[in-house]
Amino acid sequence: MTAKKNKKDSHGLPTVVLVGRVNVGKSTLFNRLLGEKKALVSPIAGTTRDVNYGVCSWRDRQILLTDTGGFIFHPTSEIEKAIFSHAEAAIRNATLILFIVDLHDGLNPNDRDYIRSIRRWTKAPLLIVGNKADTMRDRISTHEPEWLTVGLGAPIPVSAISGSGTGDLLDIILPLLPETAPAEEEPKKRIKVAIIGRTNVGKSSLVNRVLGEERVIVSAMPHTTREPHDTLIQYQDTSILLIDTVGIRRKTKVSSRIEREGVKRSIDNIRKSDVVLFVLESTVTPSKQEKRLIDICVEAGSSVCIIVNKWDLVVEKQSKTVLAYEDLFRNYFPFLSWAPMVFLSALTGQRIHTILDIVITLYEERSKIIPEDQLREFLYKARTRQPPQWLRGQKKPYINELIQKKASPPTFELVVRERFSIPTAYLRYLENRIREQFGFDGAPIRIYTSESEKEYFGKKKQK
Hints:
- The chain is of the alpha/beta class.
- It has helices spanning 26-34, 78-92, 109-121, 136-140, 166-173, 203-211, 257-271, 288-300, 321-332, 355-366, 372-385, 424-438; strands at residues 7-9, 15-20, 52-58, 61-67, 96-102, 126-131, 156-157, 189-196, 229-235, 238-244, 275-281, 303-309, 341-343, 399-406, 411-416, 446-451.
């Protein structure tokens, strides 16, 4: 069972798909049209594997751009076949297709074969775009007779590097697209969710299972995902951005520039996420690298849900098996006692239907604001139950009030007479009491102390 019920693609926009051979500049053009460096660009052939999406705005209209992996007309490896299959699926769902060629290389027989295949797959309009038109000579070359042999007319000249001709390209595209209906009212919530973990723990399989379709390439080969890929969906009137990140391993093992850039972008996405789905394998012992990933999440203030994937590999399960495994994993992450843990299988779909509901719950928990009167009552009871201990060399600790400064993540200020008079252990005590009374499941709680601005001992504090 998937979480497809009550879920739909929230774009609803005409889709323009960029296709072509490897290294013709599709991803560079994709980034140029979007106005951001969303796709990973490299001179290494085959850098782009998964289909990438982005919304392009032009003349008060929006287009869903789709970047595909460079085609290899007769794929042999598992990855090449997956790239070809995903590109074909994108083409079949396209409103319009841009066939990108390198003006310096000209046409080759594979280009012609691929164009014939595209015409069999779809009746959508097909335009040929000549990239790397960086000089006047390059632009003039679009009128050479060879380009007319495929029946698409002269290529539209652009330079993805400089941006030259891209505005003209968009002006040509717009009249060929259907007018879009007025945008629907924005959902009340938009939650950014990063799926993180080591290589081959099943992050991409989890994303596909949640979406109910093969949106990203899955392979047993490590490092199949080279860059973060996001998918915007709507679930129960909530907009959710799912981000499939690159498998992250120790820096000493990262050798290629492509992997370094993919890891960097993945960490950036973690730091900007509301909720992180931290994926582990049921049969693999966590390492120091996983602890470092959790440190990044907590430092960023992201809410965390621990996903133990490949639960189907655990054989002879009994009634207490889940509790035993939960104790095992929590021993590795004792500082994540506040994070929920889910045992599932992306392969079989077991418990996948719970993921999006958990995401919404964690977002609501991290967004809570506690009324001031409840915080005053809470502090009185907590202080009565266990007053702060004296620290050697410090004045007697006295707490004036507890103030929630913000939500997402929940952050509290403890107003005291002397900033350093409150032991760290007492702050942990308050955190635990806050969780007992107010929840904040899955969210890191921040508490800091500040000196009171009020008068005490009959004298006004000197600044």
